Amino acid sequence: MEPRLVLGVLAGLAAVAVFVGALRYKARFDAAKRALRPADGSDILQFDIEPKGAIETTRQVWTARYRSPSDVTEFEIELQIAEPVAPSPFAQGAVIFRRRARSTPGILLRDLSRRLGLRATPAAGPPVDELRCDMSFMGSRLTRGAGPDMVAGSFTSSPPGDWIVGKVFFADGEGEVFLAVNPVERRGEFLAKDPEFSEHVVREFGRVF
Questions:
Q1: Per the structure, how many domains does the chain have?
Q2: In this predicted model, what pLDDT tens digit does every residue of 103-129 receive, in sequence order?
Q3: Which of 40, 90, 97, 178 could potentially form a cystine with 152 if both were Cys, beta carbons 3.0 to 4.6 Å apart?
Q4: Contact in structure between 47 and 103 (CB atoms under 8 Å)
Q5: Stretch 61-67: mean pLDDT
Q6: What is the span of the domain harbouring residue 92?
Q7: pTM, whole model, 2 decimals?
Q8: Closest residue by Cα to residue 205 from 93, 36, 40, 47
Q9: In what helix (H) or strand (E) does residue 63 lie, and over which residues does it extend?
Q10: Is the Cβ–Cβ distance between 58 and 135 less than 8 Å?
């Protein structure tokens, strides 16, 4: 084969490779955009957080307040943060939810049930003063929006931001929900994981809220 013809074939293959790469990037970007949570936040429950005590690298505690038009529900969140160990991108830590005295959680549990796709609020299990759950930390410097990677359907690591996001496990893994907190903006969110997990999540929260 003549050198000129060989060069033409190689140039054509290179162009095809670039075109295929561009298509793959666009497909990933489009998938990321589709994975974003609904714009109306229909499966997200938002609340305010206020730091309680000094902020530590591996332990952070907040007073959380869920505000509705007629009530304010308070509870406490303690994150025991762990750092990923290669090759896993995630880290296994824990979260503790604590009851606040004189708090009335009925509206919070009702609204959380709706956000997680339930038609009614499940009956709560036996009450406890605090509920400790395993938590898989998925990122501690995330921002909301589409990017090359997507976490909990709403967050990305590029560009970096102030959100800490993890997946919380209830009742030996029978219930799962995403928890996101932003210490800088003092905001927190519960985000739906899968509908089949929602009933266990609300039932366990009802024990402590």
A1: 2
A2: 888 999 999 999 999 999 999 989 999
A3: 178
A4: no
A5: 95
A6: 44-208
A7: 0.78
A8: 47
A9: strand 59-68
A10: no
